[in-house]
Amino acid sequence: MPSLQLVADLPGHTEPAWCVAWNPARSLLASCSTDRTVRLYSYSNTSSAAADPTKVSSTTTSTEPDAASAFPERGTRSLAWSSRRWSRRSISGRFGASLGVWEEVDEDAEEEDEGEEGVYRPHRGCGHDHGHGHGHDQAHHHEDDEDEDGDVLMGGVVAKKEWECVTTLEGHESECKSVGWSPDGNLLASCSRDKSVWVWEVQPDSDFECIAVMMEHSQDVKTLSWHPKEEILASASYDSHIHLLWDDPDGDWCNFQKLHPKLPASALTIPSSATSVIAELKPSEAERKADEALDVPPLEEDETVWALAWSPCGRFLASGGDLGGVRLWERTGHNPDSPVAERIHTAAHSRSCFALSWISGGLPESEGGLGLLASGGGDGKIIIWQVVRPVASSSSAEAGVSATETKTEANTETPTESAATVRMYPVAAVREAHGVSDVNSLSWCPRGEGKGKGLLASCGDDGTVRVWRVVRD
């Protein structure tokens, strides 16, 4: 069975780290924190990309943008990179209600090769000479090189570059909780404690126009997530609802469906052969005693929805909330505004589920594979789930759950019959991913083979950023 291997432990933040995000086109990972800094980390594969990607070793080094100290007093709550085309642009959502759009400053930057849009190629005459091997630069930087994306490596570390806040977007009345770019990078969305969701359109010269302000939620809006292929936006709130938003062809941006979690949690089942998963997820004796001693009244109100993640194919949406479970929703038609139905609710974490990230991988699509879903929560655990859609010849899909199963403590009520359209089971897990701290954010690297695919980043209240990889025994 697979296991979750720690690839890099990246201390740096002095206060809780809230969000991690991989650049979609370059070897960069970003994190943000209450400590008023956004940190950038570089990475590279040291083994042949032709090897099994789950066994390729990684080295991760860090750089800090010179502009980091320019962040507001209350720090940064969320961040996101734009699409491949604009991979030198990022957005940060601040505790102080405003948004900052940041771009890398380099007068010699060149966008080369139309087939690799967004890949930055440094000026080859700046910093070192590759052609003739002479001059002052060669004497002082003979070990310099370029990584596969063209970023200048100074003795193996990506050279520090200047980042500039080119635009500040204002409008929210309180803390901005989440930000995100549409798949093509032409739209930006933000949500806030002021119960609103804003959509901005990118204009020339780093300008932005607000094209929609939606006040449909009755409480804080905790998170949002763009559909991977369409201009559909999902938002989740303290009001226990998920809203699906789109630009109505006959009107303006609006909420076309309101989702309310209802299914009871089904018991988490683990293959008896998955001893490593059982060891990580089964409550220890100390945890059992602590839970017994802690008298927590049952949740009387509907659960807050903390996390959202779309499946790579765009047909499914995952959500996580106060109850600690993971819910899967499915679009029932082929139109953008087709109804979305709740399919399953699986017991997962013993505390709130704060983070979700979904990427293709694991079981092949031909065998019903829908990708790997990562979840993290207040119990300090990270769980990797294989999501599958049962197929006619489902022997391979069912191989993840054997006839003899080990069940953890959970609600044993069974979901509705619709659950047969999709299922999920844990394939790897780790407890105390950030010590005794909550896991606040998870992010799978969206890049291809040999460029970081299979890497999972996490951050927590302990201020650290950690990078993981699923490896097979």
UniProtKB/TrEMBL annotation:
<keyword id="KW-0853">WD repeat</keyword>
<dbReference type="Pfam" id="PF00400">
    <property type="entry name" value="WD40"/>
</dbReference>
<dbReference type="GO" id="GO:0016226">
    <property type="term" value="P:iron-sulfur cluster assembly"/>
</dbReference>
<keyword id="KW-0677">Repeat</keyword>
<dbReference type="InterPro" id="IPR001680">
    <property type="entry name" value="WD40_rpt"/>
</dbReference>
<dbReference type="InterPro" id="IPR036322">
    <property type="entry name" value="WD40_repeat_dom_sf"/>
</dbReference>
<protein>
    <recommendedName>
        <fullName>Probable cytosolic iron-sulfur protein assembly protein 1</fullName>
    </recommendedName>
</protein>
<dbReference type="InterPro" id="IPR019775">
    <property type="entry name" value="WD40_repeat_CS"/>
</dbReference>
<feature type="region of interest" description="Disordered">
    <location>
        <begin position="45"/>
        <end position="74"/>
    </location>
</feature>
<feature type="compositionally biased region" description="Basic and acidic residues">
    <location>
        <begin position="126"/>
        <end position="143"/>
    </location>
</feature>
<comment type="function">
    <text>Essential component of the cytosolic iron-sulfur (Fe/S) protein assembly machinery. Required for the maturation of extramitochondrial Fe/S proteins.</text>
</comment>
<feature type="repeat" description="WD">
    <location>
        <begin position="298"/>
        <end position="330"/>
    </location>
</feature>
<feature type="repeat" description="WD">
    <location>
        <begin position="214"/>
        <end position="244"/>
    </location>
</feature>
<feature type="compositionally biased region" description="Acidic residues">
    <location>
        <begin position="105"/>
        <end position="117"/>
    </location>
</feature>
<feature type="repeat" description="WD">
    <location>
        <begin position="455"/>
        <end position="473"/>
    </location>
</feature>
<comment type="similarity">
    <text>Belongs to the WD repeat CIA1 family.</text>
</comment>
<feature type="repeat" description="WD">
    <location>
        <begin position="10"/>
        <end position="51"/>
    </location>
</feature>
<feature type="region of interest" description="Disordered">
    <location>
        <begin position="105"/>
        <end position="151"/>
    </location>
</feature>
<dbReference type="InterPro" id="IPR020472">
    <property type="entry name" value="WD40_PAC1"/>
</dbReference>
<dbReference type="InterPro" id="IPR015943">
    <property type="entry name" value="WD40/YVTN_repeat-like_dom_sf"/>
</dbReference>
<dbReference type="GO" id="GO:0097361">
    <property type="term" value="C:cytosolic [4Fe-4S] assembly targeting complex"/>
</dbReference>
<feature type="compositionally biased region" description="Polar residues">
    <location>
        <begin position="45"/>
        <end position="64"/>
    </location>
</feature>
<feature type="region of interest" description="Disordered">
    <location>
        <begin position="396"/>
        <end position="419"/>
    </location>
</feature>
<feature type="compositionally biased region" description="Low complexity">
    <location>
        <begin position="396"/>
        <end position="417"/>
    </location>
</feature>
<dbReference type="InterPro" id="IPR028608">
    <property type="entry name" value="CIAO1/Cia1"/>
</dbReference>
<feature type="repeat" description="WD">
    <location>
        <begin position="169"/>
        <end position="203"/>
    </location>
</feature>
